[in-house]
Amino acid sequence: MNTDRQAKIVLVTGATNGIGYEAAKALAAQGATIIGVGRNPQKCVDAAQQITALTGNARVEFLVADLSRQAEVRRVAAEFKRKYDRLDVLLNNAGAYFATRQTNADGQEMTWALNHLNYFVLTGELLDVLKASAPARIVNVSSDAHRMARGINFADPEFQHGYSGWTAYGHSKLANVMFTYELARRLDGTGVTANVLHPGFVATGFGHNNGGLMNFGIGLVQKLVARRPERGAATSVYLASSPDVEGVSGRYFADSKAVRSSSVSYDAAAQRRLWELSEQSVQVAARQA
Description:
By secondary structure, the chain is of the alpha/beta class. It has helices at about 20-30, 40-55, 70-85, 110-130, 165-185, 210-225, 230, 235-240, 270-289; strands at about 10-15, 35-40, 60-65, 90, 135-140, 190-200, 250-255, 255-260. Helix 1 packs across helix 8 and helix 4 runs parallel beside helix 5 (about 165-185).
């Protein structure tokens, strides 16, 4: 983030650990004002203090929210807008893997709610301030796990039948990619760009919410082959700050390079249908709140 971006305001979700934390730290080191979002209040306090201590940037604060719940997503967006009238970068990073099917307090399946609807709702709630701040950027963290999905399961997007943790995870990551492409098309001409990325297989707390042998297995594999979190965050930082991608939109990136995503992700009709399905899911949750 060069000198003309030093005062930029960046909101990063899932910023208390892993690649979200590393991205927030790197962008703070470049001079940005950082608003992180995390679920655990103490971890939010700790992360803010650590980033400030490591970067010398005191413009770091955290908002607390459970982003698996749409009411919480809306609340945190409203809190942000009460304090800030500009947003230069929205970095949607929060997500998780759930080995067994779980539901949130709204009765929605957790993978779909946290990994996809969270991005959809938060982005929608902040679009007005992003457009008013143009040129602005939306950066969505996905994964090459999206390539496991053969398409969006429109008949059963929350896998009420035949749930598999990895199937649901890959499905949600495909939704991230397709949502980004449709979003970029809808934002054409506004000065707001939207891109999506694969961070690589990163040694973080990913999957450790599942307990027992699952924690052990994922942790062992991460120790053997995973990249460090700061390297995993590099593409997020690049898309959030590099002048090389100013005006670039609707692309999938890995290792800070534009690459092709899966063939099914380019189905424009399915992208529009996913948007409509997401709107319906949001409306259902709003009625239940």
